[in-house]
Amino acid sequence: MSPYDGQDLQLESKVKKATERISENIHIIGNEPSLAFYRLQEHVRKALPPMVEKRVEVSKLHAELQGRCYDVEYAVSAVKGIGKSEESFERTRELLRNALFFKQQLKYTESRKSQNSVYKRLSAHITLDLPDLPELSETLRETASSLMNHARTATNHNPEGSQKND
């Protein structure tokens, strides 16, 4: 054997190791994208369904939120409309005050008329119920009523006459 044979064996083993490493690296580099795509596919398969569920949930929440926003906008516009109607409420309040004042005036006028009528007070006290003579009590009421009417017409037609006699 020659001295080069030992070196050849050594060189051959080094070359063999180097070519194996190069072949392994080429194989890894060639398969690396497919491994990355496999990992990516695995991740998508696990992560996509929950993401789709969350997206559907977010869409539902968005629709609900939009509906509630419309409700709030409608309520705000209603409140602003009430604020604009303040003038109408003030007019209504004033009309109610006037109506109450006129009612009080009418009540006062009615009470003054009833206080001035002596005949009215007299007829109010004549409430005799005579069981034997029912026509008499009715006649007394009619007489009191006619006297009252006569007194009214006299004061309405001749209001100055009472002042001239004084």
TrEMBL record:
The keyword Membrane applies. Pfam families: BORCS8. Coiled coil: none annotated. GO terms for cellular component: BORC complex; lysosomal membrane. It is found in: Lysosome membrane. Keywords: Lysosome, Membrane. The keyword Ribosomal protein does not apply. Belongs to the BORCS8 family. This is BLOC-1-related complex subunit 8 homolog. It comes from Apolygus lucorum.
